[in-house]
Amino acid sequence: MIAIPSASPIPAFGLGTFRLQGQVVIDSVRNALELGYRLIDTAQIYGNEAAVGQAIADSGVPRSELFLTTKIWTEHLAGDRVIPSLRESLARLRTGQVDLTLIHWPSPGGAVPLAETLEALLQAKAQGLTRHIGVSNFNTALLQEAITAVGAAQIATHQIELSPYLQNRTVVAFAQRHGIPTTSYMTLAYGKVLQDPVLVQIAHDHGATTAQVALAWAMQLGYAVIPSSTQRAHLASNLQAQQLRLSDAEMAAIAALDRGDRLVNPEGLAPRWD
């Protein structure tokens, strides 16, 4: 089984499903579950919740063994839309409850007050529709606003783009000071980091892959990771990153790779980054 860090309710390693559709996502989830993955991360806007739900149902893995995450899209952030939209997600996912529900992106232009959305998510939690709630793609100001609204203890994670090339130290440090765990997405930077000479050398020294090195780096910093793959061999290989331990010198060498290379920055959605 995949270990869950004591400081976080979130498994340290899982499967992302961004950009995967139809039979492709069904096969990815099926292979991942067969290999031992137990966290599956999806979102309303991915348009694949029904396929993910089918793959889980067909897998035979008991729902109690899984940690299932979805995210509320911006058009459903109003207080009267959060729970109905989450119920629609649950129907697509063929489950009565998800383990984690995130605000996917801040409300564009602050049209919906953050406190309103978070209060609705707390109501969803009280109703048993989700075990945990959290946020995604926030800056420090928005994290502070969320903490003020519901308290840091209610925020199970902050999911944010984070890779050796974009280490987001300011917002991560802020979250850590308040006890909010970080989940890293795009940890491999769409594959851009896989040819990095520093990672290539570290991988060579460990008899590992560069993907394993990048994932191990993030987990060693205390982040959860949710890499995606459509290939069973890569899914299996990524999973082995949990057994890789990097030295202090190797961690420092990767820390020096940060260059603010942000890949996900949608106009009209993204906040003013720290």
Strand proportion, as a percent range, falls in: 5-15%
Q: Quickly give the structural class.
A: alpha/beta
- Give the CATH class: Alpha Beta
Query: Any guess at the CATH architecture?
Result: Alpha-Beta Barrel
CATH topology: TIM Barrel
The strand count comes to: 8
Taken from the alpha-carbon principal axes, the silhouette is globular
The side-by-side strand order for the widest beta sheet comes to 1-2-3-4-5-6-7-8
- Major beta sheet, specifics? 8 strands, parallel
Q: From N to C, what is the helix and strand string?
A: EHEHEHEHEHEHEHHEHH
Q: Give me the oligomer status.
A: single chain
Number of helices: 10
Whole-number radius of gyration? 18 Å
Percent range for helical residues?
Answer: 25-40%
Number of domains: 1
Q: Which superfamily, in CATH terms, is the homologous superfamily?
A: NADP-dependent oxidoreductase domain
Terminal-residue CA separation: 36 Å
Global mean pLDDT: 96
The low-pLDDT segments are 1-6
Short description:
The protein has one domain (15-255): TIM Barrel. It has ten helices and eight strands. The protein has helices spanning 22-35, 49-59, 82-93, 114-126, 140-150, 169-177, 197-206, 210-220, 232-239, 248-255, and strands at 15-16, 39-41, 67-72, 98-103, 130-136, 155-161, 182-185, 224-225.
Characterise this structure.
About 40% of the residues lie in helices and about 15% in strands. The protein has an eight-stranded parallel beta sheet. The protein is built from ten helices and eight strands. Mean pLDDT is about 95; it is low at about 1-5. The longest helix is centred in the N-terminal third of the chain and has 14 residues, at about 20-35. Helix 1 (about 20-35) runs parallel beside helix 2 and helix 2 (about 50-60) packs across helix 3 (about 80-95). The protein is of the alpha/beta class and about 270 residues long. The radius of gyration is 18 Å and the shape is globular. The chain has a single domain (about 15-255), classed as NADP-dependent oxidoreductase domain (TIM Barrel), CATH 3.20.20.100.
